[in-house]
Amino acid sequence: MADEDLEIDLDDLQRRMDGAMAALKQEFASLRTGRASASMLEPIMVEAYGQKTPINQVGTVNVPEPRMVTVNVWDKSMVNAVEKAIRESGLGINPQLNGTIIMLPIPELNEERRRELTKVAAQYAEHARVAVRNVRRDGMDQLKKAKTAGMSEDDHKVWSDEVQELTDAAIANVDKALETKQQEIMQV
């Protein structure tokens, strides 16, 4: 059997480990800290025209900045009712009036919520580590098959060291990304 048939595709293993890292970065991106969302106002009902009406039926809800939600009330006479509904909603947001526009600045996250988010980030990182280890296991399985097909003991050792180096580098990247994300979350 030719030596080329006994080699392991390190580029494929590297690509798969990089895929695990890319998935981790995408999961980290979904961990927004203190970000405003128009959907946070959906449960609020406004006393309008003698009945309870959803807030999005008396005005336009926008998110102009990451930490600001605005409600542009269509009927000028409804501004105070919308403001009152937001104050009494229990969201902990203090509305600010500007004509028919109600601005809602979103406060910073509290310490407890930040700690919860760092734990979620750690879980995402552990999933990425498991994915990297699974790629390593596949590489080692390929090496076992190659060894039974006639690969020398020395070549087997060299290739297994290469696979282990790829794994160590990928896990180090995961750990570094986790540390960076946790610092970002805990930053006030």
Q: Give the CA-CA distance, first to last residue.
A: 61 Å
Q: Order of SSEs, N→C?
A: HEEEEHEEHH
**How would you characterize the largest beta sheet?**
4 strands, antiparallel
CATH C-level of the largest domain:
Mainly Alpha
Task: Please state the second-level CATH architecture of the largest domain.
Answer: Orthogonal Bundle
Describe, in plain words, how this protein is organized in 3D:
Keywords: Cytoplasm, Protein biosynthesis. This is Ribosome-recycling factor. It is found in: Cytoplasm. The structure is a single chain. This protein is of the alpha+beta class and 188 residues long. The protein folds into two domains: 3-32 and 110-186, Topoisomerase I, Chain A, domain 4, CATH 1.10.132; 38-105, Gyrase A, domain 2 (2-Layer Sandwich). It has helices spanning 10-29, 79-87, 111-148, 153-186, and strands at residues 45-48, 51-54, 59-65, 68-73, 96-98, 101-105.
List the topology elements.
Blueprint: H1 10-29, E1 45-48, E2 51-54, E3 59-65, E4 68-73, H2 79-87, E5 96-98, E6 101-105, H3 111-148, H4 153-186
Antiparallel strand pairs: 1-2, 3-4, 4-6, 5-6
List keywords for this structure.
188 residues; alpha+beta; Topoisomerase I, Chain A, domain 4; Gyrase A, domain 2; four-stranded antiparallel beta sheet; two-stranded antiparallel ribbon; 6 strands; rod-shaped; disordered N terminus; Ribosome_recyc_fac; protein biosynthesis
